[in-house]
From TrEMBL:
Belongs to the SRR1 family. Residues 75-234 form the SRR1-like domain. GO terms for cellular component: cytoplasm; nucleus. Pfam families: SRR1. Signal peptide: none annotated. This is SRR1-like domain-containing protein.
Length: 273
């Protein structure tokens, strides 16, 4: 069961599966990704700004910002990294997930906001740059190394668990205390999939779960398939200090079987039109 903290936020201890959880497109559906489909950039920009206004006016954003404030305290978030937005020129869900990112940029005022998705077209990249976002050009599959000192918010909207696992692997140390993950609920994941599978498929998520805190955000937004099953995950220093040194020493690079859920950079490059 979950419980409420002093500020009314739902601190997750466990919960049942979300019946309307959104997922990214399947492997078979992603062949269109490599096509440079032409979009109306002015219309795309206009729709994103409209979506941002919707999010700015929402209770959902108020709850998100309050949760961030409770987590970081007096510290500042200096950068926001976002992976896996998808086709912002064609997908309404992607546009609203981007809208939340733009709201976080506006309200938290980080030094930089970086985005990456191998599916971005050149026109979509142009739109993102116009919105003040920096594009990570290399497909590092989520393996972004954060600062040792400053706080980084990592936003993975409805992304495959392997992407989050890769991020954890690339920062597998005490510096995780400088990281906040906004992504699919780990609590839901661990309840819906056997431990024996998780320990093999996404070992870094599996191992870190006992040393993190998760805060769920009420899915109060108008459209229920955009932010459902999304939680904040952070790594309190007092919990990480209980971790034995050997815990961090086991740091093999993750390897994945070919699945519909997660496409590696090599698999993406080999996709046929």
């Amino acid at each position: 069961m979950s419980k409420l903290d002093n500020d009314g936020f739902q601190v997750v201890s466990s919960k049942r599966a979300s019946k309307n959880k959104s997922t990214k497109l399947s492997h078979q559906s992603q062949e269109f990704w490599k096509r440079e489909i032409e979009i109306n950039t002015e219309s795309c920009h206009r729709r994103i700004i409209s979506a941002r206004e919707d999010v700015l006016a929402s209770q959902y954003l108020i709850d998100v910002l309050k949760a961030v404030s409770n987590i970081v305290g007096c510290r500042n978030i200096v950068e926001i990294i976002c992976f896996g937005l998808g086709r912002i020129g064609e997908c309404n869900i992607s546009r609203y997930q981007l809208a939340l990112l733009l709201c976080l940029k506006q309200k938290l005022n980080p030094n930089k906001v970086l985005v990456h998705d191998p599916v971005f077209t050149s026109q979509e990249c142009d739109v993102l740059k116009q919105l003040g976002l920096e594009i990570i050009k290399e497909n590092n599959e989520g393996s972004y190394v954060i600062s040792d000192q400053e706080v980084t918010l990592v936003y993975l909207p409805h992304c495959p668990k392997q992407l989050t696992n890769n991020f954890l692997w690339s920062n597998w140390s005490l510096k995780l205390e400088n990281c906040i993950l906004l992504c699919n609920s780990f609590s839901t994941l661990t309840e819906n999939q056997p431990s024996r599978e998780l320990s093999v498929e996404v070992p870094y998520i599996y191992k870190i779960c006992q040393y993190l805190s998760e805060v769920s955000i009420d899915n109060s937004f108008t459209f229920k398939d955009i932010f459902n099953d999304t939680s904040f995950h952070f790594f309190p220093k007092e919990k990480l200090n209980t971790v034995p040194a050997s815990f961090w020493a086991d740091r093999q690079k993750p390897e994945y079987k070919e699945t519909e859920e997660f496409i590696t950079s090599l698999m993406f490059n080999n996709l046929k039109i």
